[in-house]
Amino acid sequence: MDIFSSEYKAFLSDFGKGRKMVLSTSENDMVSSRMMSVVQINGIFYFQTDITFRKYHQLLLNPNAALCADNIQIEGLCREIGHPLDNKPFCDCFSDCFKGSFDAYTSLKNERLFTFAPEYIERWIYKNGVPFIESFSVKEKIYRLNEYKGV
To answer: Of 5, 65, 73, 150, which one has the fewest beta carbons inside 10 Å?
Structure first.
């Protein structure tokens, strides 16, 4: 296994099945952000939202978005794939990770499911107290680990 694949697999394992993350979207050069419940299945991230919400309309106009949590920043492309209940793997994972949200929102008529395909991932990690910036250029399959030295 090459370095990108092994490190990316480790990253996805560290990420786990689900996290609360900030989703940033934009329209007409105006960026907005909000907390989301996000699950990860086989390297693809998923979230659901209501068709009446601002983020839904922003994603239709501009599918480029970013997710952020803790020391992780992810840039990628979103795509609407239908109603959440039509995707059993999503429902199983989302229900397991976010039971309250699943029960309250997933079956609502206006809910839609989005995939978020990562294109670039960056996170800060520490090795023996030394800070490093770890990055993954997903399309190009390039992995980098650079010590942060500051100036």
So the answer is: 150
